[in-house]
Design brief:
By secondary structure, the chain is of the alpha/beta class. The chain contains 12 helices and 8 strands. Helix 3 packs across helix 4 (58-71), helix 7 packs across helix 8 and helix 11 (277-293) packs antiparallel against helix 12. The structure holds glyceraldehyde-3-phosphate (G3H), 1,3-dihydroxyacetonephosphate, sodium ion and zinc ion. The site of glyceraldehyde-3-phosphate (G3H) has 11 residues, from helix 3 and strand 3. Dihydroxyacetone phosphate binds at residues 198, 232-234, 274-277.
């Protein structure tokens, strides 16, 4: 059944678990996410980015999600729009039937330029008014995503601030978060706590302090009824990097957010955990490996099937680790 993000995350908060929110761009991802959810009995958040809408088209994405709901009637599914850059973008998604939207007013309509606090409050508040009138949930964002190690926002072509960020910019302020929630009425808030989008988050192996855990606690204490969201939560699996590079890829050494640290974040109030990059890496590794071993093969279903299996295993791992398994 289609369900709002508010309903899903309220349950997650009551029971103390987190839900991975996977980006969806194609049929293979959609199947992987749903098969994993069915296997682990987990609720689902699927999200469509601007890039996904450009690649697959909004109608294809919408109908793919509706098809998933029809085929897996026992699984609650939230159809979420990722990183809306204006109230107008969110309005179009609401009109299409999305049950949840993100208004990312922390960046301008170019998805790159940090905005003023007042601008963020204004566009987010307007989106909440519109969305709540339609029973749709809203996620806002406060702060600039950026790796505390590199000071970079990541994602050359996607959503992310340009240039080097200061330590302060990369940590959401708890008092400002409280004021933001009071003024906008958002259901969920994406916070900056040391993560960044994409595969290049950290240049060194993690030592257990990737996330600003203390900051998560402080923010959660100030806004206990607002569900915290962590973007840039891919773990960048080293086994998939090795497979990609073994079969002709050239991805430099890089690290993501360890699953154990995400689990810590969930313990202190994080409820929605955004993951895109991990499924991209698994997909690419699976295709490279399959085609290297099956050089005469040309039926796309053969190698795309490998991507479904690879992505499904990652989804299963995350549903289990974050505790959403068993909660559908
Ligand atoms: O927000 C970032 C997500 O990974 C989506 O990226 O716009 O390239 O689909 P994308
Ligand atoms: P990753 O790039 O770490 O997968 O993050 C995805 C994300 O935050 C989508 O909004
Ligand atoms: Na931001
Ligand atoms: Zn994001």
């Amino acid at each position: 059944a289609l369900i709002s993000m508010r309903q899903l995350l309220d349950h997650a908060a009551e029971q103390g678990y987190g839900i991975p929110a996977f980006n969806v761009n194609n049929l293979e991802q959609m199947r992987a996410i749903m098969e994993a959810a069915a296997k682990t009995d987990s609720p689902v958040i699927v999200q469509a980015s601007a890039g996904a809408r450009k690649y697959a088209g909004s109608n294809f994405l919408r109908h793919m999600i509706l098809a998933a709901i029809e085929e897996f009637p026992q699984i609650p599914v939230c159809m979420h729009q990722d990183h809306g850059t204006s109230p107008a973008v969110c309005q179009r998604s609401i009109a299409m039937g999305f049950s949840s939207v993100m208004m990312d007013g922390s960046l301008g309509t170019d998805g790159k330029t940090p905005t003023s606090y007042e601008y963020n409050v204004d566009v987010t508040r307007r989106t909440v008014e519109m969305a709540h009138a339609c029973g749709v949930s809203v996620e806002g964002e406060l702060g600039c995503l950026g790796s505390l190690e590199t000071g970079m926002a990541g994602e050359e072509d996607g959503i992310g601030a340009e240039g080097i960020l200061s330590h302060d910019q990369m940590l959401t302020d708890p008092e400002e978060a409280a004021d933001f929630v009071r003024k906008t009425g958002v259901d969920a808030l994406a916070i900056a706590i040391g993560t960044s989008h994409g595969a290049y988050k950290f240049t060194r192996p993690p030592t257990g302090d990737t996330l600003a855990i203390q900051r998560i606690k402080e923010i959660h204490a100030r806004i206990p009824d607002t569900h915290l969201v962590m973007h840039g939560s891919s773990s960048v699996p080293q086994d998939w990097l090795a497979i990609i590079n073994e079969y002709g890829g050239e991805i430099p050494e890089t690290y993501g957010v360890p699953v154990e640290e995400i689990v810590q974040g969930i313990k202190y109030g994080v409820r929605k955990v955004n993951i895109d990059t991990d499924l991209r890496l698994a997909s690419t590794g699976a295709i490279r490996r399959f085609l290297a071993h099956n050089t005469a093969e040309f039926d796309p279903r053969k190698y795309l099937k490998e991507t479904i299996n690879a992505m499904r295993d990652i989804c299963i791992d995350r549903y289990e680790a974050f505790g959403s398994a068993g909660n559908a």
